[in-house]
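HUMAN:
Just now I want nothing more than another pair of eyes on a protein record. I would be glad if you read both lines and explained how they fit together. I have put the entry right below:
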Amino acid sequence: MNSIHSLNGCRRPSASQGLLARVRPGLQSGFSLIELMVAVLIGLFLTLGLSQIFLSMYSTSQSQNKLGQAQENQRLGVVMLANTVQLAGFYAGKPTSATANVLALPQLATNNTDGSSFTAGAGIVGIGGGSGTGAKSDSVNIYFQSGGVDQDGIINCQGGTAPASTLTTFVNSFYINSSWQLVCSVTTNNGKPNTPLVLANDVYSMSILYGVDSVLSGTTDTYLTATDVQTNGKWLNVRSIQITLNFFTPNLLNPNAAYTSTSPTTPWVQTISLMSKS
């Protein structure tokens, strides 16, 4: 037996040695620490990327909402301003003379909110030289009469109407307040101006040019500032006005940023004809 073992030149492994040989390979399976760290790092990059996509989509949505609100805000202010300006000089009752209806407007006894006063028979008057900003911007006052038996249904700049069967005079005063807002106050029957109503926000300035028929040809032949119209005594010759509202441009990168006097602006220009002169 010994000779047989010696001829083989080796010894057979014991049962315990064979078991260890089978177990050792199993101990080396699974993830190493480096592999685990790489997997965690990849997961972090994916999470960061998804977060950036979400934040970008949210920011875009906020910017679009801000832009949409700004455009709607601008339209509302301009529409109300235009609708009221068109009525300048409207007279609901019968003329008191054979001249044009505009001359039948009763003379107002009080000054407007900006200190101006209407020329007899005129339905529009303003203040400003076209270069002011904020609360120092141009202002305009629109005067008309409404109501009476016919109940014309005409509204003032705050949506109010004349009482039934009552001739009522309205002065609609438009100006920019110290909070960069286009506002309108209404004075009824020579009374006191009521609380201003905000028509549009984020308005940097309002400048106004008045279309004047200086030679009584029936058409506008020149545009003047309120200062020049007043100097030349041409309020009765105003046939149209050109209003420029400079709105603050929405900050799409930071929608919640506050506006300042140096913030960029976008102009909205509107030319409006007076129906009483058409």
Notes: Helices lie at 2-8, 15-27, 33-85, 226-232.
